[in-house]
Amino acid sequence: MIHTGTQTIDTERLILRKIELKDAQELCEILNDEKVLEYLAGIPDNYTYEMAVDYIGGKLNKRYKEQNFYDWGIEEKSSHKFIGRITVYKQDEDRSMADLVWFISPTTRGKGYMSEAAKAVIKHLQEVGFQRIEAFADVKNKASTGVMKKVGMQYEGTLRKYDLRRDDTLYDAEMWSIVK
User: Fold this and answer.
1) pTM for the structure as a whole
2) Cα–Cα–Cα angle for 64, 149, 166, nearest 5°?
3) What is the per-residue pLDDT across 142-176, written as a single tens digit (0 to 9) for each?
4) Distance CA 163, CA 147 (A)
5) Checking phi first, is residue 25 left (phi over 0); if not, alpha (psi -120 to 50) or beta?
6) C-beta separation of 125 from 70 below 8 A
7) Residue 65: how many CB atoms within 10 A of its CB?
8) Distance (Å, rounded) from C-alpha 69 to C-alpha 11?
């Protein structure tokens, strides 16, 4: 594996880049949207601007210095607006595996942006040396499983009571992956 860290990736309509302090307000707005939070556990209720600034300026900036850390903010080229995030949630170098997680602003859904971002990230991670890229989604999250299909991932099965929702109930998760 030849780690590069989070490098800027240009696609036709997007710039995938490190999340910056200038993104704090838009990140805050996205993480307070009910449609985003429906399938995103681990985000505090009433996520504030100050929380976003602390997170970006503290933990995230420290992690960006690590060569094996991969986390992109998604910027729409035409508006220069921060519209989402795609990140390697966990990785296993011994198995050459990376697990992706993403979210996007509801105002930009249905435009193919997440599929475009995921394809670019998968390509980059494969170039780094990852052999297996996987993602999981609540069986009710048809938007995410739609992205997984569009980027060439294959359905591998449903994991019963795999993870927690925001309300602390367990949900079944579909597992998808693409291998090099």
Assistant:
1) 0.94
2) 60
3) 999 999 999 999 999 999 999 888 888 999 999 99
4) 20
5) alpha
6) yes
7) 8
8) 20
Sign of CA dihedral 112, 117, 118, 123: positive
Query: For residue 101, what are the β-bridge partners?
Result: 87
- Strands laid side by side in the 154-164 sheet: 9-10, 14-17, 71-76, 81-92, 97-104, 132-138, 170-179, 154-164
- Residues 15, 147, 32, 162, CA torsion sign: negative
Only one residue has tokens 């990376």, namely 98
Asked if 118 and 102 touch (Cβ cutoff 8 Å), the reply is: yes
Query: In terms of C-beta density within 10 A (0-12 exposed, 13-18 middle, 19 or more buried), how is residue 114 classed?
Result: buried
Instruction: Please list the alpha-helical segments (H only) found in the chain.
Output: 24-30, 34-37, 49-55, 61-63, 113-128, 142-150
27 burial (CB, 10 Å; 0-12 / 13-18 / 19+) is buried
pLDDT tens figures, 48-74 = 999 999 999 999 999 999 999 999 999
Q: Are 121 and 16 in contact (CB under 8 A)?
A: yes
Neighbours of 113 (CB within 10 A): 20
Residues in the chain: 180
